[in-house]
Amino acid sequence: MADTANKLTIFMYPWFAMGHITPYLLTANKLAERGHKITLVIPPKAQSKLGQLNLHPDLVHLRPISIPKVEGLPAHIETSNDATVLEQQLLRHALDLTAPTVKSLLCDVKPDLVISDFAYWLPGLARRMQIKSVHFSAVSPAAMGFMFTGGTSPTEDDLHFPLSIKLYKHTARDLEWFKTAKEMGSGITMEQRLTTAISESDAVCFKTCSEIEGAYVRFLENKLKKPILLTGPLLPNPQSSSTDLDEKWANWLNKFTPKTLTGFPFLIALRPPVGFDTIEEALPNGFTERVRERGFVHGGWVPQQLILKHTAVGCFVTHCGYGSMWEGLMSECRLVALPHVADQYVQARLLSGVLKVAVEVEKGDEDGLFTKEGVCGAVMAAMAEESGVGEEVVVNHEKWRGILGSEGFQDSYFDAFVENLRKLLD
């Protein structure tokens, strides 16, 4: 632990999504290990889910914030995990409506630094209150790099953005929505929200390391002309976490032989598709009964990292959200990439095409469709010991897991991150 002098007071306000809130809490824990004080503002339901992961409640204050009423947004929705695509737009509008409450909290906390992401108005508010701000990105430097190259595969003219990542044609069309579609309530595009948040901040932060994404970090430093801070991989220290897997999941997983494909047992966590309120309504008639002894489909949030650590889990089919990307890299599971939207495609290509630690499910270039045969083939390729592809991804995965998990690796990055936060205050 660092010396007790010159401790920071930090105010964190992430977007109302578990994939955003979780890395903020992990960062808060690591800051608290070094004696710093953090106020993390999140919805009440998120606090009830993640409160047990707060390892330093004396220094990490989880402050609940009420979700303002927005027409068309059901009262029970507090995070994007429980919302449809349309409801997520309204939830972002609700986030914007919390600005007066957040200003009052800042006056109460009097932080040295504000760390946020989707609240594009917060860096400007912080500046007017003479508080430094950091944009803590929930996507990779590689994905953000695509945003600053127009949302298409970049060329050498784009400040030498690394050319090893290429995207499907249908992904470029999806990214066009990101640039042009104005959201209900706020009336701004997602690109406007993020570019404003980034440009108004004093620095940009990523939960990565230069060994993995150094080329993309250098590209952004040239493009943004502001400090890029790296926390290193943000994952709980197994030795410091006493959290066990819930009995519901543990009992089901304990039925299976470790690390095998026998009978293809599966556990899937999905959001309900458009037009359905629950995942159960969307499943074919009789499906649950047919797979009851070997399959489990869940429509809500699951403790993914704890599940990946279970001995029965041999393969992780990931949507390649940034948090899931890191959890997959640090796990012992074979990795299969099945991205669905936006930044996930870039991160899938980072895993499968650059690091070569995953097998990516083939999709149609124009339509983005995939088949059950494609998913099965990717899983088999990743799991088969005699497969050339499977052997390559296993060797590369073990290499990177060894580097990322080596003694002192994460701590050295995080110590440098804290020092860089201090430099912003000079």
TrEMBL record:
MF term (GO), any: UDP-glucosyltransferase activity
Highest taxon of source: Eukaryota
Keywords of the record: Glycosyltransferase, Transferase
Class in the EC hierarchy, top level: transferase
InterPro entries named among the record's database cross-references: UDP-glycosyltransf_plant, UDP_glucos_trans, UDP_glycos_trans_CS
Family matches, as Pfam families: UDPGT
Record EC number: 2.4.1.-
PANTHER family on file: GLYCOSYLTRANSFERASE, UDP-GLYCOSYLTRANSFERASE 79B30-LIKE
Name of this chain's protein: Glycosyltransferase
Biological source species: Erythranthe guttata
